[in-house]
């Protein structure tokens, strides 16, 4: 897997994961919807999706680099995804939700194609 391709996929996955984890919190969910708290089922779904996307960052990172360097790169992508999510949360929570949702599925598909290619 090409390093640029892996970096793009890993960044998109970490951004989507951090956005999902952010909207699982009452404060950020209220910024998005105006409701005081996240419904229990939706909270579980958002937390699970966020954790899944963040773990999925390890796949392109370890395919592009070795396992030891890939884990360190994944930590960097998680940090960058958190920074982007925090910046977009401050600027526009609706845009963060839209971007996070729109990059999640294509990134997963690209990561799976990277596994087979």
Question: Explain this structure to me?
Answer:
The chain is an all-alpha fold and 117 residues long. The chain has one domain (3-116). 87% of the residues lie in helices and 0% in strands. Helix 1 (3-23) runs antiparallel to helix 4, helix 1 (3-23) crosses helix 5 (67-91) and helix 5 packs antiparallel against helix 6 (93-116). The protein is elongated.
End-to-end separation:
8 Å
Helix content: over 70%
Rg (CA only): 14 Å
Strand share of the residues?
Answer: under 5%
Order of helices and strands: HHHHHH
Unreliable parts: none
Total of DSSP H or I helical runs spanning 4+ residues? 6
| Arithmetic mean pLDDT | 86
Layout of strands and helices, then pairs:
Blueprint: H1 3-23, H2 26-33, H3 40-56, H4 58-64, H5 67-91, H6 93-116
Helix pairs in contact: 1-3, 1-4, 1-5, 1-6, 4-5, 5-6
Task: Briefly summarize what is shown.
With 117 residues, the protein is an all-alpha fold.
Key features of this structure:
117 residues, elongated, 87% helix, mainly alpha, 6 helices
């Amino acid at each position: 897997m090409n390093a640029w391709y892996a970096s793009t996929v890993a960044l998109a996955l970490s951004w989507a994961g951090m956005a999902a984890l952010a909207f699982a919190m009452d404060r950020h969910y209220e910024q998005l919807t105006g409701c005081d708290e996240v419904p229990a089922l939706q909270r579980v779904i958002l937390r699970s999706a966020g954790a899944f996307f963040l773990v999925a960052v390890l796949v392109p990172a370890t395919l592009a680099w070795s396992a030891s360097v890939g884990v360190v790169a994944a930590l960097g992508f998680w940090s960058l995804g958190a920074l982007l999510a925090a910046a977009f949360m401050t600027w526009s929570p609706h845009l963060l939700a839209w971007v996070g949702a729109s990059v999640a599925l294509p990134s997963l598909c690209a990561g799976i194609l990277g596994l087979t290619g």
